[in-house]
Design goal:
The protein is α/β, with parallel strands linked by helices. It is built from 18 helices and ten strands. The relative contact order is 0.16. GO terms for molecular function: phosphatase activity. This is 3-phytase. Pfam families: His_Phos_2.
Length: 460
């Protein structure tokens, strides 16, 4: 399949637009408090950014995005977004630095003096960081603030599958008590903590010599497998990939974000955004894998994606501009033995990974959350963004002007009323000597860059 598509790229296939969704790099363990990107993690993410720079921004590449300004950052051509959480923001920044490395810039002034940039030519791509209380937060973290999604945890813990595995793995988990005590209560050293235990020992095997000696590779593989099973059960265990389904809600919101960015206008040479880079967490990967039936192509999609993993969507034209296709690719980490590999979506079996755009859009639209209102209903969420949408506005309708529709008159009346109030308030403030100041962000927002992972149970 790869060789055939490689030939197509040289015979007229043209990449028009690309979307990359990435997981963060290596980090400190979650159970020790606020997580941070490690030096190893920065190297992983930087390597990923370099990889995609070579693939999509190098004019000599057969996958070069048509019409993009190459390695020179142009704001209107690239869109990057991440949840406002320290680990994901750090990863996004490193990725963008690799994607658009420094360019030497020297300017000559009118008097002939040459001036060089003090930052060595850094390009500073814009990163849109989305606060957790923003209506747009759902598109990259659709499971946060979703009570019905959280119920999947309770359902799994009450299932016979969980009970059986908890019993059969009890002695295995207890064999690590010596390196887990003090960090996990005795009643939490077991399958009930499959992911947190795997996460801690996985990080420890890299950085802690005692744990590295204590936990064998075989032990770590089994811990990983057990963690895979719990996270799949709570984020992706669906019988049919249709919506709405609270278990896979984060995959459904991501699907809408993908459709929004990878849309028909991007198929033209005059399109604006040609490259989109989004960051999120492993649970969103799993949910999306389930919704698009990817495990039917490879059992590896049942497992947790490793650090710095990426899924990619290429919008391509072949053989002419009027024939648009979408190709899905997955890269599990950044190691040389983990190549960027294409897979057919939605159980298309042995068919080409190139999917006609209309078919792709139709299939994605079926699994995607339509809007914030639908998300609020599916999740039965009481988040502020959901409460605000239902908040009534108590405004007395104005008298209907002859020939004017009542609803329009009411709207104008509301505007006039608000304008009058504004004039009165402004006058009072001038008289009393007050002045307007920018309202400070809430405390939890202001410290989000340092304590987001600590204050919120973030799956990353």
């Amino acid at each position: 399949m790869n060789s055939i598509l490689g030939e197509r790229a040289t015979e007229g296939e043209m990449v028009r637009s690309v979307l990359i969704f990435s997981r963060h790099g290596d980090r400190t363990p979650k159970n020790l408090g606020t997580t941070r990107l490690t030096t190893l993690g920065k190297n992983q993410i930087y390597a990923s950014g370099e990889f995609y720079r070579t693939r999509y921004l190098d004019s000599n590449s057969t996958h070069f995005i048509k019409g993009i300004s190459g390695r020179r950052y142009v704001e209107k051509e690239m869109f990057a977004s991440t949840p406002d959480q320290q680990l994901l923001v750090q990863s996004s920044q490193v990725f963008l630095q690799a994607l658009y490395p420094p360019q030497t810039v020297t300017e000559t002034l009118a008097d002939g003096t040459s001036v060089s940039s003090p930052d060595n030519g850094q390009q500073f791509p814009i990163l849109h960081s989305v606060s957790s209380n923003s209506p747009d937060a759902i598109w990259l973290k659709g499971d946060d603030g979703c009570p019905r999604h959280d119920q999947s945890f309770e359902q799994f813990y009450a299932s016979q599958q969980f009970k059986d595995l908890a019993v059969s793995t009890k002695s295995f988990y207890e064999s690590f008590t010596d390196v887990l005590q003090g960090l996990f209560p005795p009643d939490k050293i077991g399958y009930i903590s499959a992911y947190p235990i795997f996460d801690y020992l996985n990080v420890g095997k890299i950085y802690n010599s005692t744990i590295a000696k204590r936990v064998s590779n075989e032990d770590l593989d089994r811990l990983r497998y057990l963690a895979d099973s719990t996270e799949w059960a709570m984020n992706a265990n669906i019988t049919t990939p249709t919506m709405p389904n609270p278990i896979s809600i984060s995959g459904s919101t991501l699907a809408r974000a993908i459709l929004t960015q990878l849309n028909p206008p991007a198929t033209t040479t005059n399109s604006t955004v040609k490259l989109s880079v989004l960051f999120g967490s492993y649970d969103t990967f799993l949910s999306f894998f389930a919704l698009t039936s990817l495990p039917s192509t490879s059992p590896s999609f049942y497992g947790l994606p490793v650090y710095a993993s990426t899924i990619v969507f290429e919008l391509v034209s072949y053989p002419s501009d009027s024939n648009m296709y979408v190709r899905f690719l997955f890269r599990n980490g950044t190691n040389p033995d983990s190549p960027l590999t294409e897979y057919p979506l939605f159980g298309r079996g042995g068919e080409s990974a190139l999917m006609p755009y209309k078919e792709f859009y139709g299939s994605m639209d079926k699994i995607a959350i339509k809007n914030l209102d639908q998300w609020c209903k599916v999740c039965d969420s009481q988040e502020d963004v959901c409460q605000a949408r239902d908040m009534p506005i108590d405004v007395q309708p104005a008298a209907v002007h002859p020939g004017m529709k009542p609803e329009l008159a009411g709207g104008i009346g509301a505007i006039c009323a608000l304008a009058a109030v504004g004039i009165i308030v402004a006058a009072l403030m001038v008289i009393l000597g007050f002045r307007f100041t920018k309202k400070e962000r809430k405390a939890d927002e202001a410290k989000s860059c340092t304590s987001a992972e600590e204050s919120v149970d973030v799956k990353a």
